[in-house]
Amino acid sequence: MIAIDGPTASGKGTVASRVAGQLGWHLLDSGALYRLTALACLEQGIAADDVGRAAAAAQALDVRFGDGTVAMSGRDVSADIRREDVGSLASQVATLAPVRAALLERQRAFRAAPGLVADGRDMGTVVFPDADLKIFLVASAEARAQRRYKQLIEKGFSANLLTLLRDLEARDARDTQRALAPLAAAHDALVLDSSHLTIDETVAQVMAWWHERWHQRAASRGA
Fold first, then answer.
1. What pTM value is reported for the model?
2. Which architecture, in CATH terms, is 31-113?
3. Residue 9, annotated ligand binder?
């Protein structure tokens, strides 16, 4: 299995999806689960500091992942969970221990043959500490803000580059400084800076590392 962690808008979701596609493996977008929880909270009027109700919302999620789509309670919410207000609240509810506990086993249940590529912020440190390959994907805040701006504009959403940059920096601070499962590279993770790489180049590097790791393991088994 491959775990890919990194900050908001580092491209880990797209990279994980393409790597999973090339390998023919299952895919876990763990961030989507937190965004779904945030969306449920927004729709139910649950405040970010209402720990009990937020955890209950996470526990009760009726989620279905399809071919590039995400459904909640039978409704396609693929676009809704990518809204900036949802992403901002997701970063806040992700600091709540009961919410993380509610989603932990749900994430681990995605691990199945022939393999899994999981992306998030604590895949290699907490959820799948025994992953065969751990990647920590980073990019400068400026590069990530530019990417997010382009994505939003292409999807027809209004966006302000400076506002996005400030929001990313605030999320980075929350994610790295939270007491529970902070965003950090696992001690055995390979760090990949994609600031000046295309998605294709980033995917190629991850695949190269995976094939190298696979051959190393095969050689050790045959020794």
1. 0.84
2. 3-Layer(aba) Sandwich (3.40)
3. yes
